[in-house]
Amino acid sequence: xxxFRAHRPDADQLWLGDARGVxxxxxxxxPALWMIGRLGYTDTHxxxxxxxxxxxxxxxxxxxWALRADGHGVRDSVVAGLDITMLASxxxxxxxxxxxxxxxxxxxxxxxxxxxGARDVIALGLLTGVAYVAVSADALVAGGDAxxxxxxxxxxxxxxxxxxGALIARTRSRRDERITALVEDRLRMAGxxxxxxxxxxxxxxxxxxxxxxxxxxxxGQDLEDVDVPDEAVRRAAANLRxxxxxxxxxxxxAHPQARAASLDLEGEILxxxxxxxxxxxxxxxxxxxxxxxxxxxxxxxxxxxxxxxNAARHAGASTVTVRVTVDADDxxxxxxxxxxxxxxxxxxxxxxxxxxxLAGCRERARRRxxxxxxxxxxxxxxxxxxxxxxxxxxxxxxxxxxAAPSPSPGLDDxxxxxxx
Amino acid sequence: xxxxxxxxxxxxxxxxAGIRRAIELDARIELxxxxxxxxxxxxxxxxxxPQVALLDHDMPGLTGTAVAAELLRRGAGVAVxxxxxxxxxxxxVLARAPGVVAVLSKSLSRRAICDVVVATGEGxxxxxGAVDA
Lengths: 420, 133
What we know:
- The structure holds 2 protein chains of 2 kinds.
- Chain A is of the alpha+beta class.
- In chain A, 62% of the residues lie in helices and 9% in strands.
- In chain A, α1 packs antiparallel against α2, α3 packs parallel to α5 and α11 packs antiparallel against α13.
- The longest helix of chain A has 80 residues.
- Chain A is elongated and about 125 Å long.
- Chain A starts with 14 loop residues before the first helix and ends in a 6-residue tail after the last helix.
- Chain B is α/β, with parallel strands linked by helices.
- Chain B is built from 5 helices and 5 strands, in the order βαβαβαβαβα.
- Chain B has a 5-stranded parallel sheet with strand order 2-1-3-4-5, with helices on both faces.
- In chain B, β1, α1 and β2 form a beta-alpha-beta unit.
- The two termini of chain B are 20 Å apart.
- The chains are: A alpha+beta, B alpha/beta.
- At the A-B interface, α7 of A face α1, α3 and α4 of B.
């Protein structure tokens, strides 16, 4: 997306919660290893304290980096490799094969289960085993039954932790898939919810058109056929004409497409912005380009209404900018405020809480081949952008879409909003 | 006096019956047949080859303009008059559709509709005469 001051890629990411937990475990590991090394019976190397400090700086720094860059900066596998190297170094300096702290590495595959898939967890477990060989190299060269027993038993422990980690990873990824499916289900339902009343209105309008209106018009023609109309016939004809006009007005209001065609988009947005702005004390700047009118007015208005009322309720903004423009082959709707911004995970949370308005807009944009993104701006504020292609179905009726007769039944009807 | 031959189509039986009565009462027009949807209308028109087709736009199967386009594609030589209850601006769009000679409001009096059918048929006859000469 162009024209942004700065952005976080997507504020509603589940993984940030996991990443924070993993970061805390990694940070806690270093002081734990240091204390175990200091309290243990084995002799620690002179460089152990220095290594612990370096390790602490590394875990804190890398965790901060990962959270700042939303995980896009460094590959997780690189971090895992560095973590193993760090642990191996600390263990080497605090007793090698016998290091009391070696049991801490058993946690490694379990923590990895929250970040990686089962296969990667197994690879990480094997790598940990190899690292333990390196840590124990001195003792293994010296040999001895006790040494081999210690070494073998710890290898079994690493194997067990790896297996457990892999199983956890598998369970977690299945749960993630389930959650994703549920969220998608919910989005689809949200889309349905907003379209059902529209469909019903359209059906009502079609029923009026297909039967009632035809009967009225035919009756009017019958009355015109009366050779010498008396006062009563003239009155009946006048009433019938009024009835036809009123039915047509009803249909225009009832048919979503027809209503959109008669909509004053800019006026409606200004009206909306005025009402919400007065209540929540923000100023709205509205810009609606002429070619953007009549493309998908109902969707634009629905989305702007949702975004403005969100801004009014949650943002605490002083200025909100609404722009409805056409960029190449796309209709673009931008709504930007200078409020408190979107905390990470906020959108997912509101979906879980049952607030479906925005999800419904997103689903409807998706159905028209478009998309809706919300972005938290650095330094505060939220920028929402909806992009909908100006495809055949989205073009305004006066653009000629209707003039091209289609041999496929129904298509013509769909793009003929005002045909009665 | 030569009569103008016509086929009419509308999915609403009452409206269609009204048009049929008016045509039958009008000595200038000969009704060759009527249909209740666009597909049947196209079939009838291809077989009967009237001078004028008086078609409702909004029909099941094919719309009136779709039938007009198909007739034009097949070179059927039928002048298509579209009836619609759509407002003026939508009628202008329909009038630009290929193969459509005229677009009329369904609320017009039947006499006026018949007059347009006759004028269209006579126009078509004159055009044919011009080609013959």
